[in-house]
Every structure is written in structure tokens, then in C-alpha cells.
Design brief:
The protein is mainly alpha-helical. It has eleven helices and three strands, in the order ααααααααβββααα.
């Protein structure tokens, strides 16, 4: 079978099955992502997946396409959820990704499946957390963010009165809601950490370490975010606690911490590689002298 024919079959199977069996789950995921319902990072996930495929483009072009019959098993597992109405839309969306991987295996072959496994399964990170898990993590994150920011503004000499999740500044009464907990930072940094580790590291343990470090990084960012909002409100007025400037400050802090962490990692990596090269040059020079 010609490669073009295989690609057409792959596209037809994926689109037809997605529209017929998974349309409710796909529509719900689209709504959740576009309305920032605990999955605001999801808008970037498909573009990152495409970027991962682009990085492998030279390999993908030279991969021989063939039929891989074990893909039928993955397709069957993926179809079980919508056919038997098993699980929520979260489960059904993940089932669609499993089905998609099965189509790749069946139509394009085992080698293509291996090369595309990570980009395809990375799409699962678009799935929002179930409500109970999300609220539990949000409350945990809210305690850390609120408590840390109060300690910082105390050191800055800003007077306040705290009552539960309310904070009274001299010019405004603010409520630290679930949406202000930093849970979105936690999820987004975790997902971007997976992407960054995949692109910049080959060692599995280094990848795990980078992803793990996104958890404390997200808490640092959450504390910094609330602190900035409290400080801006205290010195420049309640305007900075309103929705639009609030969102602008949140995105600014998110980007500042994210790119700052990437820059620090790149600097440390280059410094470590420089030292290794110096040691290698020294050892080579010593061997030559000997």
C-alpha cells in the first residue's frame, strides 16, 4: 500500500471515529480549555505536540510505513469507553488518544508508533482534573500561597487583617478564592515541565527531576503572584485587584517565573558543560605532556 493511501486511511479513521464516537468528550475538552476551567494550559498542548513531531520530522520522513496488527488491541481498548458509556468525558478523551495511537500502530506501523508515542500521548495533559481532586489540590495550594504572601507583606511593613480567606488592606477587602489558589500554576508548570524535560534532556532521571521541581516552582510563583497583587493594591489602589489587571499580573508573573527558571537551567547546564569540557581538555593536555 502506498504511503499516501495509508495517511488517508489514518486521517479518515481518526476523523470519522472522533466525530461519531467521541464527539461529546472532544466538545467538552474544547469548552474546558477555551473557558479556562482548570485547563487553561490546554490551548498550548496541541501546538507543543506538533512541535515534538517537527523535531522528529527527518526521522518520520524516512520511517518505513507498514501494517501493525497489535494496533487493533489499542483501538478496541479505546473504543470500549464510548461504546459501553464507561467513565466521564475525562476517561473518554483519554480513550480517544489510546484509539488514535492504535490507528497509528495499525495503519502506519510499529516504528511510526514508537516515534509518535510521546507527542500523541502528551495530548492527554489537556484533560482537566476531576472536580474533587482539583478542589483538594487547590485548597492545599491556596494555604501555601496565602500564608507565604502574608509573611512577605508583613516583612514589607504592609498592615492587614486576615479573616479566613479574606484579607483587609487599608484600602480594599480582598477574597482569595479557589481560582486564586495557584492550582492553575501548579498544573501548567507541571505540563510545561514535561515538555521542557522531553526537549532538553535524554537522561530519564534528569527528566523526572525537572518535572518534580515544577511543583515547588509553582508554589513560589503562587506566593509571588499574591504578593504582587497585595503590594500593588496597597500602594496603587484597589484597581489592581480587579479582574482585568488581576489577570494581567497573573500572566506576567507566570511568564516571568517560567522563563526565569528556563534561563537559570540553561545557564547551569552551560556552566556544567563548560567545566566538563575544561576537565576533558586538561586531561587530554596532561596525557599529551606525559
Amino acid at each position: 500500500m502506498k504511503p499516501s493511501a495509508r495517511l488517508y486511511i489514518f486521517i479518515i479513521l481518526s476523523v470519522f471515529t472522533g466525530a461519531f464516537f467521541y464527539h461529546d468528550a472532544l466538545a467538552r475538552i474544547f469548552t474546558v480549555v477555551t473557558h479556562r476551567e482548570g485547563s487553561s494550559h490546554g490551548v498550548f498542548v496541541p501546538f507543543l505536540a506538533i512541535y515534538f513531531l517537527w523535531l522528529k520530522w527527518d526521522t518520520l520522513k524516512t520511517t518505513k510505513l507498514q501494517t501493525g496488527y497489535p494496533g487493533i488491541v489499542l483501538m478496541a481498548i479505546g473504543l470500549a469507553s464510548p461504546i459501553f458509556h464507561l467513565g466521564t468525558f475525562h476517561i473518554q478523551f483519554i480513550s480517544f488518544i489510546v484509539f488514535l495511537s492504535g490507528v497509528i500502530y495499525l495503519v502506519l506501523g510499529q516504528e511510526m508508533f514508537k516515534h509518535t508515542t510521546f507527542p500523541v500521548f502528551f495530548l492527554i495533559t489537556m484533560t482537566p482534573m476531576p472536580g474533587a481532586v482539583y478542589e483538594g489540590l487547590a485548597n492545599y495550594s491556596r494555604h501555601i500561597a496565602f500564608g507565604g504572601s502574608l509573611k512577605i507583606i508583613s516583612l514589607l511593613g504592609i498592615p492587614y487583617f486576615k479573616d479566613g480567606w479574606l484579607i483587609q488592606l487599608h484600602n480594599a477587602l480582598l477574597h482569595v478564592a479557589i481560582s486564586c489558589s495557584g492550582i492553575r500554576y501548579l498544573i501548567s508548570y507541571f505540563v510545561f515541565g514535561i515538555a521542557y524535560a522531553y526537549v532538553t534532556r535524554d537522561n530519564p532521571w534528569q527528566r523526572v527531576l525537572i518535572v518534580a521541581l515544577t511543583i515547588p516552582l509553582s508554589h513560589v510563583a503562587s506566593v509571588f503572584r499574591l504578593t504582587v497583587i497585595f503590594v500593588m493594591t496597597h500602594y496603587f489602589g484597589p484597581f489592581w485587584s480587579q479582574h482585568r489587571p488581576h489577570v494581567v499580573l497573573s500572566w506576567a508573573v507566570f511568564a516571568f517565573i517560567l522563563f526565569g527558571a528556563i534561563a537559570l537551567d540553561q545557564w547551569l547546564t552551560n556552566r556544567r558543560q563548560g567545566r566538563l569540557q575544561e576537565d576533558k581538555n586538561y586531561q587530554t593536555g596532561s596525557t599529551g605532556l606525559t
